[in-house]
Write the structure tokens for this entry.
Amino acid sequence: MALLLEYGSWVNQKEPSFGHQTRIELTKEGLLLRNEKQKEVVIANASEPAVSASMLDSGNFVLYSKNHSVLWQSFVYPTDTILGGQNLSEGQNLTSANGHFTLNMQSDGNLVAYPGNNEREDDAYWHSNTSELSASQLTLNLTGFLCLSYYGDTIKVLANGNYLGRTTSLIYRATLDLDGIFRLYVHTLEKNNTGFTSHLLWEAISDRCQVKGFCGLNSYCSIVAGKAECKCYLGFKPISGNNSMFLVCDQTMKNDCITSRDPRMLYNVSSPLQHMQWSLVPYWNMQLEMEACGKSCQEDCDCGAVLHEDGSCKKYKLPLAFGRINNTVSTTALFKVPSMNAIHPKKARGCC
């Protein structure tokens, strides 16, 4: 099962076109994946000839040498999931099956979630806050105890599954899901053997809009009827993704601001959008009233939007990333949008 859960995710990320008619072969050199077109990829390289393989009850898939020493095991190479009995050690990470998010067990002792492969500290959207405790690994044991430890000693408990359902079999897994949220699940096999059922036991974040990268460039996340939705800013249109996740937007029309004698004729300032939050560094910041803030953006060819709060005017360039509605902040966002009266300079001279 570990091979299906873990390597299946790896295939989705690395070999999206590998195909469904694929088989795993055990060779003397190690473990090989081959599809119907004879395309091959090596899963595991053995340091010496491998003579047997075993799927352990823990879900760990292991290759053995002729003297029964372990040559390779899937638990050492996690992808988006760790199972009961598996660790995520310092320097290792989990990557969501779609490749959009990463959970890294950092050398500073923090377990940190980032958008994509970007591990800039400012872009982190969740962390365990264990740097001062010097955590060395993330551990999930067979009873659903998910914790951070320092060389075997527990220093912070993230979740204690300990599911007490009437079952004959329990399997715990901690997964960095497609939406970027790290969650703990238990899979239970009922005594009447009606099949496995899955239960969510814990999640690091309950608000999807807190996940940086949940919505794409030039779109923002808001909670509507309890669900996270992505929306384009005024003056933008969707070009990929959808309202439920990863929506990317672009401007509905483009004008040549730089060559214009008066940029104010090309653009208007949109209606204000309240409680906007961007995890971006503004390129300009001054004390201005709201009206003057919008006018300053209107006249500035580099400005795509401004954020006004308590007299502070911050300018941002396009594209806008990591936008969300956060009702705990008192910000007002204004966007520079093309004027309906804007005419391209060439067309104004009768050129085609």
Remarks:
- The chain is about 5% helix and 45% strand.
- Residues 210-338 form one domain.
- The chain has a mean pLDDT of 84.
- The CA atoms of residues 267 and 338 lie 4 Å apart.
